[in-house]
Specification:
CATH class: Mainly Beta
Strand order of the largest sheet: 1-2-3-4-5-6-7-8
Distance between the termini: 42 Å
CATH superfamily: GXWXG domain
Order of helices and strands: HHHEHEEEEEEE
Number of domains: 1
CATH architecture: Beta Barrel
Helix content: 10-25%
Shape: globular
């Protein structure tokens, strides 16, 4: 474990706790997966609210991933995720946030609901927050599965998996940062 933490410092130039979104944007997919493996699952209550999202490098698949996420997955450009508390106060479900139009005529849609749970990762068997779409979606979107880990307060690293594009062997990295607002809820399912 100590050697891998040293490797993170060598890759990024800072410790895991010192990472910023700008650091993550400069990494290639293999480096991002290495950072993900060093991070811990978030405490689910800290995620409640809406978080700004950004797709990170998916290697050669980046153009296809960006086309799918920003044009086909939802109504508009993907800009983040919202997490909602369940009866226990922990995150149990959420939605994706998309925007269409320019600043003068901007439409925000909160769709593509998901459920969440803590479980061993598909990538390293350590605990991750899993984001599962099958409970609320149909078609290709129902096969999506994301995992989320905490880098530090207000910065989370996710790996998205779509079986049609290689699943866990070809993850699509994304980051969630900041907390936009209290969750408003999905526009529709």
């Amino acid at each position: 474990m100590q050697d891998s933490k040293k490797a993170i410092v060598e890759i990024v130039g800072t410790s895991l706790e010192g990472l910023t979104l700008e650091h993550l944007k400069r990494l290639n997919r293999n480096e991002i997966v290495r950072v993900f493996r060093e991070a811990d699952a978030p405490a689910s209550a800290e995620l409640i609210g809406e978080h700004e999202g950004e797709m990170l490098s998916a290697g050669l698949m980046s153009p296809l991933v960006l086309l799918y996420v920003h044009r086909l997955f939802g109504p508009g450009r993907w800009i983040g995720k919202g997490f909602e508390a369940g009866k226990t106060g922990d995150v149990e479900s959420g939605y994706n946030i998309f925007v269409r139009g320019d600043s003068a005529d901007r439409h925000v849609n909160r769709v593509r609901r998901f459920r969440t749970y803590l479980a061993p990762s598909w990538f390293d068997e350590l605990t991750s927050l899993h984001i599962e779409y099958a409970s609320y979606n149909r078609g290709l979107a129902a096969t999506f599965h994301d995992e989320l880990r905490r880098i530090r307060a207000s910065l989370y690293l996710g790996l998205g998996c779509i079986p049609a594009f290689g699943g866990r062997f070809n993850p699509f990295p994304f980051a969630l940062s900041g907390s936009l607002d209290s969750p408003i809820g999905a526009s529709h399912d």
